[in-house]
């Protein structure tokens, strides 16, 4: 798995003392902190989680609809301004982003954020916020306000790997929140569905049809979005099999993991790094060649397979897949 892009690089020893932060640096950092805190307050008011006095002070009215946080891919043909006030970077085409719907200001059509920027103002260790996280998929695009025609060029929908990671990350985090807050841990209610979502693709997987699931969705989860990739048909032990969740999500099943504020963005960035890496053949740097060499054959095969964009069932289109590059 790729390392996080936010990993620090140690400076070289040049024989001179490190430059200390200036007064202006401190002022700029303090201004960012205050701006982030104000946006955090605004967001909680927007969600109806603040008292009436706070909402009045922030000039926010209680909404009749519940705001949701959609995790999606930025359309290929457009860029967007990140709504975090302290961020000056654009959201580029193909990037994962958060779309807050409805937006926090009535006159603004949409609020878009880099995932890492949104994590600065949204505490996703709070179940009131976590429950609003929705990946944009073939099953949720209508909730997002999209039509099928918006999806035909591969826009908005998460690739298969990101879809599975966001949903499993959300469930994992809900379980930790329940444990921290002294509630009975959230359980997956249907063992047949859980077996499909967790074990599909594994050497020892035995398939059962989930009651009520369409044949198309069964196909999608059984093959296209299976979290396991076998090392080989003759490997009955499965010791060399690759697993999406074990590769990109936390292996430490403990409440303390909730303190990792930028957990979702770092997991998605690692997945994106490897997704891009395995699909590139030419112009690889030496570092990239080494990183690609560390990936096993099942890992590469699994990542390539999970790059697909499973589309909604559309009668006039026979092929339900769009491959990312």
What is the fold's blueprint, element by element?
Blueprint: H1 23-46, H2 52-57, E1 68-73, E2 80-81, E3 90-91, E4 96-101, E5 111-114, H3 115-121, H4 127-130, E6 133-135, H5 160-180, H6 191-199, H7 215-224, E7 228-229, E8 242-243, H8 244-248, H9 263-278, H10 286-293, H11 297-305, E9 308-310, E10 321-323
Parallel strand pairs: 1-6
Antiparallel strand pairs: 1-4, 2-3, 4-5, 7-8, 9-10
Helix pairs in contact: 5-9
Which structural class best describes the helix and strand composition? alpha+beta
Residue stretches low in confidence (pLDDT < 50, at least 5 long) are: 1-17, 316-320
How is the largest sheet built, in terms of strand order? 5-4-1-6
Question: How many separate helices?
Answer: 11
* Relative helix content: 25-40%
Distance between the termini: 18 Å
Number of strands: 10
Mean pLDDT: 87
Task: Describe what is shown at a glance.
By secondary structure, this protein is α+β, with helices and mostly antiparallel strands.
Summary tags:
325 residues, alpha+beta, four-stranded mixed β-sheet, two-stranded antiparallel ribbon, 11 helices, 37% helix, globular, disordered N terminus
Q: What this model shows, in words?
A:
It is built from eleven helices and ten strands. It has 325 residues and is of the alpha+beta class. The strands form four sheets. The protein has a four-stranded mixed β-sheet. A two-stranded antiparallel sheet has the order 2-3. A two-stranded antiparallel ribbon has the order 7-8. The two termini are 18 Å apart. Residues 1-17 and 316-320 have low confidence and may be disordered.
């Amino acid at each position: 798995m790729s390392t996080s892009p936010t990993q620090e690089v140690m400076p070289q020893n040049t024989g001179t003392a490190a430059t200390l932060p200036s007064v202006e640096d401190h002022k700029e950092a303090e201004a960012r902190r205050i701006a982030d805190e104000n946006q955090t307050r605004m967001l909680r008011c927007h969600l109806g989680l603040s008292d009436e006095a706070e909402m009045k002070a922030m000039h926010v009215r209680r909404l009749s609809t519940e705001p949701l946080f959609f995790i999606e891919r930025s359309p290929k043909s457009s860029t967007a301004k990140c709504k975090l006030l302290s961020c000056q970077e654009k959201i580029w085409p193909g990037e994962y982003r958060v779309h807050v719907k409805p937006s926090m200001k009535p006159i603004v059509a949409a609020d878009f954020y880099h995932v890492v920027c949104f994590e600065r103002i949204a505490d996703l260790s709070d179940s009131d916020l976590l429950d609003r996280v929705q990946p944009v998929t073939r099953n949720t695009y209508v909730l997002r306000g999209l039509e099928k025609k918006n999806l035909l060029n591969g826009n908005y929908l998460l690739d298969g790997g990101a879809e599975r990671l966001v949903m499993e990350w959300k469930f994992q985090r809900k379980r930790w929140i329940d444990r921290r807050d002294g509630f009975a841990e959230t359980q997956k209610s249907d063992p047949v569905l859980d077996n499909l979502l967790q074990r599909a693709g594994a050497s020892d997987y035995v398939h059962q049809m989930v009651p009520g699931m369409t044949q198309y969705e069964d196909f999608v989860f059984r093959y296209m979005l299976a979290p396991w990739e076998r090392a080989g048909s003759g490997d009955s032990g499965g010791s060399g099999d690759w697993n999406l969740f074990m590769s990109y999500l936390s292996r430490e099943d403990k409440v303390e993991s909730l303190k990792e504020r930028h957990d979702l963005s770092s997991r998605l960035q690692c997945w994106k790094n490897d997704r891009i890496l395995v699909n590139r053949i030419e112009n690889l740097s030496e570092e990239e060649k080494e990183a690609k060499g560390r990936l096993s054959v099942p890992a590469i095969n699994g990542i390539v397979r999970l790059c697909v964009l499973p589309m909604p069932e559309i009668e006039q289109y026979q092929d339900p897949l769009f491959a990312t590059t």
